[in-house]
Design a protein that fits this description.
Number of domains: 2
Strand content: 15-25%
Order of helices and strands: EHEHEHEHEHEHEHEHEHEHEHEEHHH
Radius of gyration: 21 Å
CATH architecture of the largest domain: 3-Layer(aba) Sandwich
CATH topology of the largest domain: Rossmann fold
Largest sheet: 7 strands, parallel
CATH class of the largest domain: Alpha Beta
Number of helices: 14
Shape: globular
Structural class: alpha/beta
Distance between the termini: 55 Å
């Protein structure tokens, strides 16, 4: 009997953020008879401090082929480098055992960069999602472009980002604008009702409500404590407002933000802190709050698809394509309060009804599958630098 000639696709996920975006694609790979899914879980997925989100992956019915434990407390550069070393060793053993035909990764975090680096050394082609994007106040910006240069196939989330990847010297025939794959399932998503959210999270929605996620601006670490304090002191002024906080990424000095937020929630009965909500609860919260506040990429990419406004604070996401639902401001009390006031204005609310998300494209996951299936992976390892003619 002739064996099926399938391609082994190794998907690496390192956090709740990339898993939420990858989930629909992982499911399609799993169901495709010409592809064999290999799922590698690492990073903050394995951290109890960050909600041990690998449990969500198991609950979704996926088999995990490899677990790579790397996370300590990435509160300083030394610890992050130590975790990177663990990641490189873990990926080396993993790829040697699994022998994938393609490594599929998303984003810009250090553990994803380590997967790409290891893949290059092992001679395994790499497909990268969400390249070409810009976040100028974070070292994720540098990792992202480096990952693009280590990759052979590129799936951008907008045409602007596709052009930027080509600008990096990547051949246009290998750069595909497929949209943000994580937006596909939102239109038919089974949201949890407000009452059930209250029961599950043991909270109470007041007349007004905000969902807040704040990450460090890792290239301006000296201001992290000050900026967090500005946001919290501003939010304290709000009346009849439920404040739902989610934990920051496992970045350098993120522990300082977590400490301040926990202290704030302990002192304010209308404020609640959660390590991880999981994708279903997270999207359901967005659906039921008045706005999302902070500096998470989710506020720019996913939130507009739910016709909700985002208040984007600071420069962490500076440079990303933004929809008209985004209100940007600095770490300034007056500007933050003015932005919150704008959320509740009739003029701004009317814009949300006709909102188009610039990151959305139909059939994103299937288009990615089609490209992977039609690409001769054994012929794309050697890349020529593509020079743009000026």
């Amino acid at each position: 009997m002739k064996l099926l000639n399938y391609k082994k696709i190794c998907v690496v996920t390192g956090s709740r953020a990339d898993y939420g975006l990858l989930k629909s694609l992982i499911l399609k790979i799993k169901k495709n008879s010409n592809l064999k899914l290999q799922l590698v879980v690492t990073g903050s997925h394995l951290s109890k401090e960050h909600g041990y989100t690998i449990s969500e992956i198991y609950e979704d019915g996926f088999k995990v082929n490899e677990i790579i434990k790397i996370v300590g407390h990435e509160s300083n550069p030394i610890n992050l480098i130590k975790s990177s070393s663990k990641a490189l060793n873990g990926y080396a053993k993993c790829f040697k055992r699994l022998k994938p035909d393609l490594i599929l990764i998303l984003g810009d975090r250090y553990e994803i960069f380590c997967a790409a680096y290891t893949g290059v050394v092992f001679g395994i082609p790499i497909a990268h999602l969400h390249g070409g994007e810009v976040t100028q106040n974070s070292y994720d910006e540098l990792f992202r472009h480096a990952i693009s240069k280590l990759s052979q196939i590129h799936f951008s989330s907008t045409e602007t980002y596709r052009k930027r990847i080509i600008q990096l010297g990547e051949s246009p025939k290998n750069v595909h604008n497929v949209g943000a794959v994580g937006l596909e399932d939102i239109k038919n998503f089974a949201f949890i009702s407000k009452k059930n959210i209250e029961n599950k999270l043991k909270i109470k929605f007041n007349k007004k409500s905000l969902l807040i996620t704040l990450h460090p601006e890792t290239l301006h670490r000296e201001k992290i404590n000050k900026n967090c304090a500005i946001i919290l002191s501003t939010l304290k002024k709000l009346k009849n407002t439920t404040l739902i906080f989610t934990m920051p990424n496992n970045d350098v000095q993120s522990n300082q933000i977590t400490k301040q937020i926990k202290n704030f929630c302990n002192k304010n009965k209308n404020a609640f802190f959660f390590k991880s909500l999981g994708r279903k609860l997270y999207l359901s919260c967005i659906k039921n709050v008045d706005a999302v506040l902070g500096n998470s990429s989710s506020g720019l990419i996913e939130v507009p698809s739910l016709n909700k406004p985002s208040i984007n604070i600071g420069k962490r996401q500076y440079g990303r394509v933004q929809s008209k639902s985004i209100i940007s401001c600095d770490f300034n009390k007056f500007q933050i309060l003015r932005s919150i006031k704008k959320v509740y204005s009739n003029k701004f609310s009317s814009k949300l009804k006709k909102l188009k998300n610039p990151y959305y494209k139909k059939n994103s996951a299937q288009n990615i599958i089609n490209v992977i299936k039609s690409t001769k992976l054994n012929k794309i390892l050697i890349k020529k630098f593509y020079d743009i003619k000026f």
